[in-house]
Amino acid sequence: MPTVRRICGSGAPVRSAGRHRHPVTAGERYNFMRFRGAAGLAAGMAVVVLGAGTATGETRTPGASPGIQIVPGPEDPLEAQFVPGATNVVPPTAAPATDIGKKQVQSLAAPFYACSGFSGIEKTNPLANLYVDKFQWGPYAAYKVGNGGGNLNWASNPYKNASWYMWFHSLRWLGQGIIAAGQGNLTALTRVNTIAYDWYRDNPYSWKANVGAWESTMHRTNVLICLRQAILSGLKVTTLPTRYAWLDTALLSHARFLTNYWSGAWNHGTDESIALFGVGCTLHRTDYKNLAQQRFAAGITTSIDSQGATNEQSTGYASFNYSLWGRAIAVMQNCGVNPGTTISTRRALLAKFLTLATNSLGKLHQLGDTEVQSTYPWVGTPLEYAGSFGTKGAVPPWRVGIYSAGYVFGRTGWGTDAARGFTGESAYSIRFGPPRAFHGHFDHTSITYTARGRDIIVDGGYAAYNAGAYRTWVVSPSAHSDLTTPLSTYLNPTTRLTASSVKTNAESYVFSDAPGSGISRVRSVLVLKDPDLLVTWDRASAKTAQAFQTLWHLPSDQRARVYSRTTAIAAASGDTTKTILFQVPFKQALPAGAMLVKQARTNPIQGWVYPSSFVRKSAPTLMLARSGTTASILSFVVPVRSTGSVTYTVRQSGTTFIVNLNVAGKTTSIAISGGGSLYRVR
Q1: CB 424 within 8 A of CB 414
Q2: Confidence class of residue 10 from pLDDT cuts 50, 70 and 90?
């Protein structure tokens, strides 16, 4: 049985000598983005009473408390998002909402701010570990961070990992102990109170110089609120006992910090505003609630734009923001504040965005800092249909979406054709727009594509910040399916969509930018239905000789083989689908080495995918190569059945170049006009 430490009159634990008082700045930034399934997404939509769990330790008599109430918040992305030495602030750029808190809530039970849970961090930190001061996060072994009696070394960072360090300071790992304390387990209550007080005493205001403690303030604030509720529940009292008065002082200190240091209009700033509102609701501080409402109003219109796209350049973070703003609505309503309609309107637009961002495998297109993740089927929204493979909800009325934030999403349909079904449709994404920022990558003009129930063209994925050269690569143009110029320095340009056409059996788009000094790049994209295939025409010019490489990143389960300068085939063993990739000479002869496969290369890095932050897989990358001062690369990506074939002929009709295709028995033609338009003929 672990020793129960005595609590002094102030609620402060008896302290051991030899304090560790040397906090350090966290080491290399580390990303572990894990929007972990459906459980964490039901943010603010239902109250869950946690009282069924068991815990060892001393328990109150005559009977245990039913426990604290938890309105689960979305499970936060697990990576540390703050950059040491940076402001980490995203200023609002759009006009604020004007309707938040302007109307009275018509009817309400006693206002409350429920414990938001522990974001899943608590799952690997059982009571037994808390009793011996062990903390576990991510792939790392549990580490003893204290002396075994609740006297912790808050400078601990054994794995030199910013995310480990940030979550250590968040205190979310105390979750199982707080839940048990709320049920009347006094041993658990003593230990979590001791550790939380230890943090408070060892990290006096202001802790901004410690980036891990700074970033985790919002998380820690919520944990302290949960602890406060556990004390009331576990002790079966209605007011905080004097010996725990330090907790309210700590909450005021955290509210002061949140007041002075707001991260602005992105997910972190929203989380901070929710936590500040929570302190205001818990301690009956109208000033904190009002400031939080002002920040909600300032942040919502920048965080989610008028089309429904977020400013974070990541489909995964877009999904997280949908959940997060749902929680913002719920906490305001629960504490007697009318959230207005702007937030719900923008969330509805974001739901449309996420619906269109869902591929034919029921997953989000993996764009920016996004792990491979399924679309969550939010009931009553178009996401219900997209996230359930079309088994629930109404068929979305949109098939193509073009967003000025830099996204094109399209699909052949929603599976209403029984011959296709949901997964038999094709779906694609194309990136363009403003320069890379936040959680975005250098992925302009890149494409992802699913068809025939599988991935066809994939993104390089999402590598953690501590992945070193692989993180640099996965963000770079070389990790995406685009035209690259690897001998030049990438300039992070704005990429313009200069033309688009949407028809029932084909969509076409034209993008242009200047990816390097003295280099111009134009990509025309044509997406066909029946037969389903992609066509791209890349052309580029440069003032000095360059290497021009059109890249096609293929799934890790496939192997690719080059058959000639024109043709390669990618397939997985035993699969019913293969992908035929070929290029047709147009305005430029094909040189030797015009088509290459790169896989599992380390210098330079090429031929990998990251389905998640900790997982890197070898995967083939097809490279269509040119050199000189100009390039014209006309390429086709054609998924067919494993026994299918593709043949083509070319002809000139006046100034128009025509390619006639036979795709596994289905015929079609595409053309490039003398003026440079790429389109479907039949």
Answers
A1: no
A2: very low
Whole domain around residue 459: which residue ranges? 432-642
Is residue 618 assigned to a domain? Answer: yes
Helix boundaries (H) for 106-216: 127-130, 162-170, 175-182, 186-202, 211-215
d(CA 154, CA 137): 15
164-180 pLDDT tens trace: 999 999 999 999 999 99
* Domain contains 1: no
Residues 351-377: tens digit of each pLDDT: 999 999 999 999 999 999 999 999 999
How confident is residue 660, by pLDDT bands cut at 50, 70 and 90? very high
Same domain, 93 and 218: yes
How many structural domains compose the chain?
Answer: 2
Specify if 363 maps to a domain: no
Domain boundary among 325, 356, 387: 356
Rounded CA-CA distance 457/536 in Å is: 13
Residue 411 contacts residue 426 (beta carbons within 8 Å)? yes
- CATH classification at residue 266: 1.50.10.100
User: Partners of 559 in the beta sheet?
Assistant: 571
**pLDDT range class, residue 332, cuts 50, 70, 90:** very high
Residue 265 CA, chain-centre distance (Å), reads: 16
Token pair 């699913």 is at which residue?
450
Backbone Cα Rg of the chain: 28
Task: Please say whether the beta carbons of 442 and 431 come within 8 A.
Answer: no
Cα distance between residue 450 and residue 533, in whole Å: 10
E strands, 366-479, are 400-403, 407-411, 427-431, 447-451, 454-457
DSSP secondary structure letter of residue 23: -
198-226: per-residue pLDDT in tens?
Answer: 999 999 999 999 999 999 999 999 999 99
